[in-house]
Amino acid sequence: MRFNATVAVVAVACALSACGTGTSTGGDGPLAGQAAEVVGTWSGEEQARFEKVLAAFGEKTGAKITYTPAGDELPTVVQTRVSGGTPPSVALVAQPGFAAQLAKSGAIKPVASEVEQAVSEHYAPIWKTLGSVDGELYGVYFKAANKSTVWYSPKAFEDAAVPAAVPGTWDEFLAAGRALADAGKPAVSIAGADGWTLTDWFENVYLRTAGAENYDRLAKHEIPWTDPSVRVALEELAKLFGNQQLIEGGSSGALQTEFPKSVTNVFGDPGKAAMVFEGDFVSGVISSSTDAVVGEDAAFFPFPSVKGSEPGVVVGGDMAVQFKDDEVTKQLMAFLASPESGSVWAAEGGYLSANKSITSDTYPDDVTRELAGQIVDAGDNVRFDLSDLAPAAFGGTKGAGMWKDLQDFLADPTKLDETVQRLEADAAKAYAP
């Protein structure tokens, strides 16, 4: 999930009124004269690349497909559209918890049998499970993200004479950060203005300190956020958040830094920090916003082990769900489940898929191939972004719930008791039947 402040007002107003900003013109084909609208979070370069996917569908079928960007406000936009009786044909939803709410309310439709068959053929079983509600498949994961990567500037490490450029443990990561700070370079640029990045920090630490079983239980709110396992993860995270020398601009500066800026803080000229934690989509910002070359000036390593934990991968993804049951919508969903659709964006860069039928040589570089391979090779041994599994009111709403509580924790990591109490209060309210 990413948020582009420059288009926020236009995107939200447009989505609420059901107008589109990008259109595949359609043409001859079996669906000529038919139309559908897709709502998603993407804007800018991501929107342009997704529109190429929709254009490929339009050229194949003759259908006219309109794309409307909604940014981080997508849950609000979709709910408003549904309530107003003007739902889109398809939405790309980043929160399975929100998709489950839509399914249980009857707002979205189960996928057609041919779509389910495509998912079974091209995806590991975990992705079918994640797209299902009460055993029925409602969604197709079109785009995936590897959210367990730390991106760094090799030059910054060399200039600081840091001996290990690839920290394997959390203690080594913090030690490298202190060495970088001592050499005059803040270790990490944190995008604290975008609360979703802080949930990713927490989830990676929690998976490694609490284990997969507790991760699953917390995601379902089967254990409270006041559980000792949550405190342990926050205590580890406070070792970073509480050291102002390790953070570019300190906590106050981080809380004013949006995600794209956190990346250019590391890979722009001059670089202001040595590392930035986030998903594979960091590479797209590097390529589009800096002169750094991914694989040369920019590299990544897996999120480090904490307290001797086994390797783990936190993933995210954008799931296509359908609000309409007409032929053009069904065929569009089947297309999005196919390797053909994902290959269009994969060739452009800035994209990963859990679709195992997309060949590795489709991706444009070795770094992206490695990132995509980690997701596919992990099979069912992945854990989905916990905040996206939660109800949107807790895990996916700007300025509220988990996003806001972790922003407050970044501002003052000493307030651990207050943080877990607020997290539990917000979660209990959001998970209440």
Count of individual helical segments: 20
The major beta sheet can be summarized as:
7 strands, mixed
Number of domains: 2
Q: For the record, give the distance between the C-alpha atoms at the N and C termini, rounded to a whole number.
A: 27 Å
State the secondary-structure class.
Answer: alpha/beta
Low-confidence stretches: 1-20
> Averaged pLDDT, please?
91
Query: What would the CATH topology of the largest domain be?
Result: D-Maltodextrin-Binding Protein, domain 2
Q: What radius of gyration results from the CA coordinates?
A: 21 Å
CATH homology superfamily of the largest domain: Periplasmic binding protein-like II
Describe the global form. globular
CATH architecture of the largest domain: 3-Layer(aba) Sandwich
Key terms for this structure?
Bact_solute-bd_prot1, D-Maltodextrin-Binding Protein, domain 2, 3-stranded antiparallel beta sheet, alpha/beta, Alpha-glucoside transport system substrate-binding protein, 433 residues
Structure description:
- Belongs to the bacterial solute-binding protein 1 family.
- Keywords: Signal, Transport.
- Residues 1-20 form the signal peptide.
- This protein is 49% helix and 12% strand.
- With 433 residues, the chain is of the alpha/beta class.
- It has 2 domains: 5-145 and 315-380, D-Maltodextrin-Binding Protein, domain 2, CATH 3.40.190; 149-312 and 390-431, 3-Layer(aba) Sandwich (D-Maltodextrin-Binding Protein, domain 2).
- The longest helix has 25 residues, at 195-219.
- 53% of the residues are buried.
- Residues 1-20 have low confidence and may be disordered.
